[in-house]
Structure of Pyruvate, phosphate dikinase:
Amino acid sequence: MKTVYTFGPGIAHDDSRARDKAVVGGKGANLGEMARIGLPVPPGFTITTEECLHFLRDRHSQSARLDGEVRSALTHIERTVGKRFGDRHDPLLVSVRSGARVSMPGMMDTILNLGLNDQTVRGLAASSGDERFAWDSYRRFVQMYASVVLGIDHARFEDALEKAKEDRGVSQDVDLSATDLRDLIGEFFGIVEAERGAPFPQDVDEQLASAIAAVFESWESDRAKVYRRLNGIPGEWGTAVNVQAMVFGNLGETSATGVAFTRNPATGDKAYYGEWLVNAQGEDVVAGIRTPQYLTLAARTAAGAKLPSMEEALPAVFTELARLFELLELHYQDMQDIEFTVERGKLYILQTRSGKRTAKAALKIAVDMVEEGLIAEEAAIRRIDPASLDQLLHPTLDPDAPRTLLGSGLPASPGAASGAVVFDADTAAVRAELGENVILVRQETSPDDIHGMHVARGILTAKGGMTSHAAVVARGMGRPCVSGASSLSIDYQARSAEIGGVHIAEGDLITIDGSTGEIFQGALPTVMPELDREFATVMAWADRHRRMNVRTNAETPADCEVARQFGAEGIGLCRTEHMFFDGERINFMRQMILATNGTERLVALDRLLPEQRSDFVRIFEIMQGLPVTVRLLDPPLHEFLPHSESEFTELSAAVGIGVDQLRRRAEELAESNPMLGHRGCRLGVVYPEIYEMQVRAIFEAACAVSRETGQPVVPEIMIPLVGTARELDMLKQTVIGVSEAVFAEQGLTVEFTVGTMIELPRAALVADEIAAVGEFFSFGTNDLTQTTLGISRDDAGRFLGSYIDKGIYAKDPFVSIDVDGVGKLIEMAARLGRETRADIKLGICGEHGGDPASIAFCDRVGLDYVSASPFRVPIARLAAAQSALAAT
Amino acid sequence: MKTVYTFGPGIAHDDSRARDKAVVGGKGANLGEMARIGLPVPPGFTITTEECLHFLRDRHSQSARLDGEVRSALTHIERTVGKRFGDRHDPLLVSVRSGARVSMPGMMDTILNLGLNDQTVRGLAASSGDERFAWDSYRRFVQMYASVVLGIDHARFEDALEKAKEDRGVSQDVDLSATDLRDLIGEFFGIVEAERGAPFPQDVDEQLASAIAAVFESWESDRAKVYRRLNGIPGEWGTAVNVQAMVFGNLGETSATGVAFTRNPATGDKAYYGEWLVNAQGEDVVAGIRTPQYLTLAARTAAGAKLPSMEEALPAVFTELARLFELLELHYQDMQDIEFTVERGKLYILQTRSGKRTAKAALKIAVDMVEEGLIAEEAAIRRIDPASLDQLLHPTLDPDAPRTLLGSGLPASPGAASGAVVFDADTAAVRAELGENVILVRQETSPDDIHGMHVARGILTAKGGMTSHAAVVARGMGRPCVSGASSLSIDYQARSAEIGGVHIAEGDLITIDGSTGEIFQGALPTVMPELDREFATVMAWADRHRRMNVRTNAETPADCEVARQFGAEGIGLCRTEHMFFDGERINFMRQMILATNGTERLVALDRLLPEQRSDFVRIFEIMQGLPVTVRLLDPPLHEFLPHSESEFTELSAAVGIGVDQLRRRAEELAESNPMLGHRGCRLGVVYPEIYEMQVRAIFEAACAVSRETGQPVVPEIMIPLVGTARELDMLKQTVIGVSEAVFAEQGLTVEFTVGTMIELPRAALVADEIAAVGEFFSFGTNDLTQTTLGISRDDAGRFLGSYIDKGIYAKDPFVSIDVDGVGKLIEMAARLGRETRADIKLGICGEHGGDPASIAFCDRVGLDYVSASPFRVPIARLAAAQSALAAT
């Protein structure tokens, strides 16, 4: 079997091993493919992974044979490029790179410009006509080689380089002259000799053989081993080695370098797009010293630029490049991002890959390509990153508006918003009522602030992470939010704040960008999203291919409307408690909680009943005909009680109970771990009258809307935090009892189901028993993650960042389902549930319902629907379609 | 097939159906068995459960046949007793009772004295010579019959009875004369006629047939249905009906009634034991109006009582009774508790069952019976309730001491203790240091109080349940504790309290009994437990039969000593954090926590190191050669920070940091749900230097003790709150690194293992991965229960009682493992763990390690050991033996 595979123009191996990543590595396979389809890649060869393993087993036995094969592959390069390795006049230089089966970024080593020595560097200087370039190339090579191959600490050379710049009073590498660099190389040689007791190797063949050996050995470095352990990569894979001719775009006026896209990556328009520089290397573009030129005449003209486009300056090369663009799109069936170099009029393609693009461009390119007949609808769906749609769905800052940045925090909920700063929810409510746009600015938010968050255009907090209360609620509402802005300090007494040293009084205007986390002074203009033809087209395709339904988590009429516009097929989670914070209701709610006996409680509940009923009427009207899953009261009661002195005083006046007594009752209700406390169905078990009121409100509303519209109303009553079948059974009986009473009073019957959230590990473990009672399960993955992992979302900030950095969790488990842990419970519950009740309806209503990876997981385990916040509904539709396609 | 089975003296059916509880019910089978072995039971008959089901299916078709069989069975009774049913002169009376396959206490109905009517009541009066007795028997019959058979509300008759007493100015039923009762019966008849439109039935055959039908029907009552659903009893079982002759102990001087034990139930001595009353009914004993007489001459003499013993007064009957005692013990192979009645010189045994006994008696009886050759060792082990041993292991109140009860709370940790009241842990420490016995009295306790709890003789709290901090810690330490004493109110400022209205100043003496929950004034004398020969014998037997090892949860030298005396075979859980609360250490600990950088933290840790090391030295010395599982720091750091104003001031002086800054840091560390917060190995991951110090202390101590004693030291390092294999892996590397350093310094190597607690659902779910790293698992069932059920132990008080009352959980899941939920995770983790590492050591160290039902579960799933608090070690040894025997 071959151990070395050549690649380059005109080479297309019959051997399937040349295409096998297991044999030639990922990079080797890509280079081979580019050559095979006729791209002018700089020629080179790949030494197989098997050879790496042989080498690591026995470092001597293979070397002679390998040397022979390498030598003959090198001759292939020399012939193709027309230069010879080690030639004193116009030397062939090569790169030596590792290339394992999968990409291991930064984990392994690379050597560039190999083939330079004290003689060939002069040849390079002559042939390039640029002495400084030649010596700098040599300097880089010596530095890389000494570090990678000879194992000398990189810092020794960096220090010498720094010292050289200091001695010459310059700060940039580019300010060192050819002579400076030559002197520096002399110093480098001194370091090498002192460290190794031998001079730097001048024999280019020895350089190459040692570099190949060093890349093989890098597979066994500590760094690579750790990386493999973290990523589950077996040590037996080994790495391939790629040796490739160096090409230079700075060998005169017929040389150039550039980057091109086959279509416009910002807009998606079908037009070549790119930049190039004559007589330059890639790094010159990066350094930003010279202004890049446009690729096409059209683009140059549109921009009014003076420097000639490539189309004008190198028309033959441009024509060849354009031909390759077509070839590339036809082959890869996607918009490509290409790096190219022209060396003395000869075009080389260094790299091609699918180009990054904006969400807007992604949609347009996908739709165009389908219409061009280039790709199928399924491929178009697969190609769009669902998460990127978020960019399209929220208002964004007008990119042309001038701005003054005050500071920044975490991009907690996307979209941009401007408004007057307010420091509490009540003020937010009052000023919003007067028609003002407000930004609610808080240390952190609590459920007490919900009414303020609802009316605010955006939310800004000084504390809290991406999964803080503010962040979660804001995302749910689709309100832009910046959280954890550490440069923000608030003085609630003075009703003012400082952001990045700037004083902000209540009422001052600011703008926040929840997509970037930035905070700006004043009201910047924002641009509303335009959901164009391409968006609608892709969504329609997605709907055609997905198996799962997509619902929304919503409880306000406004959110319900938005969700329906975005294509929600029902409500998966309507949280009734949010309804209790609005306006006067909170006082009735507090009266209910403070009741010392059932009668007092009933009086307060009677006042809440019509309010709840009217909420449900509006929701049922909007969701006509679609299922609405209503979760009964869930949070611990003390969340509804006052916190501040003034709130206590106000409540005392409203309910006629002394402040001291109120405070005592609030203290009694306080819990050490409210997350695991008296909440969810435990409230329903101990205070059945609360759930009775809620269920009555639901059924009365359902009857009213059903009568009024003649359309079906489909309530699904969801009991939260169930851990045993018996809890659900008791509460289901309560629901049925109330339903019978209401239907008798109304002379009307409405179909409904009773089910539960699966949000405790125990519920998942006994899901077979629970399914005997519950007609549906909705996985409450927020709480299920908290309990399964034993991590409080509110407190996780202290260590979760560190946990993700250290690879303990690959992703934030509150953002993307922890498949190995939480996922295992969900799978078990789904299986057990179906064993008892084959047609049980299964869904998910945690934050994960809007996360594409989690949606794919839900699809794999066979859930019937996912439920996402309104603004994530399109994302969920697309992700569900992708997942369905992946399964076929 | 027979539908009616007679029983009584001389009847022993060949038919195995007569012994089958499924056919004749539990009570019917027992009565049959008693008769079969020759006991003089009042004769009667049982109608099968099948007949009940026939009846419920078709109420008419069967009645004629059944009537015939009943009639002939009744004749059997009449012949045996020598009275006739409905006889006007000396009527046979019968009881009619339900009797299902399993006991359903209070769920079904009973009718006594059936066979009375306006004629036979006069016959009963004549034959008994007690007119009041006759009319009262009739009154009771009418009342029961009207309620059970005729379905008239019981309250109607109770009201009439109350009114009759009021009218006659008396308060007790017994104060009503025969005439009063006759009048009352007249009123009862009026109620029956008004309600039913028909007179009370005077035909005794009709009475019997209707009573049997009513018992059948009671199987379908709502009450019975609910009971069945709660207890998983199938409706298809049906109930049998037992009809049995009434016998009366109050028919003159040759009649009597009594209760007897075949051995002394208090001491276990082999001596007949019991009480009797001549010419009396069972209820006379209960009413306490007459003083019962001793059964034996020896007992009467010992007590110096005047009234004759039964041995003297009714020698023939006594001889017969004594003969039956021997027969009973031989047959049932256990000490029996017997109810008997003598009717006109004829002895009837009404009931026999295994007698309740004290723990001391249980041990003595078991050992004696083995020595007598009556039972085998295995039977002796099986028979002793492990939980009852608790009575023997703690000091108890001297039963003879006079006492003044102040109030009571929950019996949170057994044992009695006296001492001076102190209201805070520091005062407790100071006064205990001076040699005073103190009782720590707190609103509730927190980890800050640990040092005070350690030095106190007992703990009393006003708040908190059986699983509050005080209760759990006190049980762990073996300190008596009364928690949640609602009549206790404390004024910390005034340093005084009130208990049940009595003022208690600091320093006043009180006594608490943690076994009963009682609080007494003054210092009552207590008696230390004597662990006698029988205790040692039974423990030795248990050790011979158990499979699992028994370890202890202990971290103080005193606890370790106690546990070894009680037979602990190692430490399963040594909680290092408890060591940080003692004396000055808390200040070093606080300095460590408040450190703003690694260096400051290291300085504080350096001061803690020698303290930790000396703790471990003492523990390793005591546990010589036995394994010691040390859990690294687990609780959230803020638990160590001050709470009160004065503590902050004190700390500020000690560490030289302003109070404000300290308070700010404490606030920063506060968590919403500390249970799910930054604790356990999450501390080790973020602050590795804390674990490094602890591990260094362990290994330095192990080396020192190993060198000093020449004995092996067996440390097992346990990493808490692991959720992923990677966390454990990282920390295991830390442990190994420190071990290598210490062993190199010490020139000595100590064998050790590294493992983890399985206390998060996720850990159980990925136990296969974790077992690749961890060498042992210890199930931390306290936290595993909290997370799996989503119930905070600290907050469960609000609803857990209600949950247990409603049958949602059969037992408190923090006391006895929730087998269906938590148990499923433990089983899964044990299986997955062994799949990866066949010899992984598995144990349990939650509170459940001392609960017999949980120990049986641990045995079933194959754990290697259980670990219990020191005082529960004997319980665990016995429970483990019982479980091993159950498996064979």
Notes: The longest strand of chain A covers residues 346-354. The longest helix of chain A spans residues 598-622. The mean pLDDT of chain A is 90. Chain A touches chain B through 48 residues (CB under 8 Å).
